[in-house]
Amino acid sequence: MQNSFESIVSVLETYRGRDKVLVGGVLSQRSGESSQLGKSLLLLSAQLSHCRVVLRLFDDLSMAAYSADYGLGTTEEDSILRWMSVLNNVADQLYYPCEHIAWAADAALIKGKSDRWWTLSTVLWGTSLLLGILRSIRIILKTKRKVETSGREGHAYHREGAVSSTPELRRQIRREALTVFSSVADLCNAIHWMPPGFLWAGRFPHWLVGLLGTVSSVIGMLQMNSSEERVST
């Protein structure tokens, strides 16, 4: 009980954690727009969305530091994973200035329309999600092969190291699978927010957008909790 409480506190101590809790819960409501409760929830959702945009104004440098540290991923043995990660970092890095310009245009800080910048930032977000999904799938496939190899070596040679590494490999598979589910949910919403005419853009009802957001939020909280537990051990 105490560990669960501490995990919730740890999540809420970051604005990203608060974002997952609040937005996931708010958008999951199925109240119609015509009801007062529905209108209030939509207004609250809009304010939370604006808050997230403002907080992300300060994320450029941290993202740039991460991208610079990763570079071209020369330490990554798998060339496909390496270039997926590099392209993912490029998409993430370009996302922030596009969103900043869109926000500044909406706030009348600069002249011009924000629509194209919001569209571009959504495209970059969707691209990042798609690359992340493909990357996680490849990691899962590679890790499964390692598990099979470890199992064969363990039975054949009784290698203690090979046997003991299998549980950790299986946990990695589960973590990557959760990442895939979360990113797919976000990607569905990203496409929904694209300009009309692109796939299912604009066709989702509010409750479905909220459900997908909640699924992503819950998975994100589970992953953050899992990360905290690994650090504590």
From TrEMBL:
Where does this protein chiefly localize? membrane
- Return the GO cellular component terms, semicolon-separated: peroxisomal membrane
**Per the UniProt entry, what is one GO biological process?**
peroxisome fission
Which superkingdom heads the taxonomic lineage of this protein's source? Eukaryota
Subcellular locations according to the entry: Peroxisome membrane
Q: Name one Pfam family in it.
A: PEX11
Name of the protein described by the UniProt record: Peroxisomal membrane protein 11C isoform X2
Keywords in alphabetical order, please: Membrane, Peroxisome
Give the taxonomic lineage as stored in the record: Eukaryota, Metazoa, Chordata, Craniata, Vertebrata
InterPro entries, per the entry: PEX11 (IPR008733), PEX11C_met (IPR026510)
Q: Which organism is it from?
A: Chanos chanos (Milkfish)
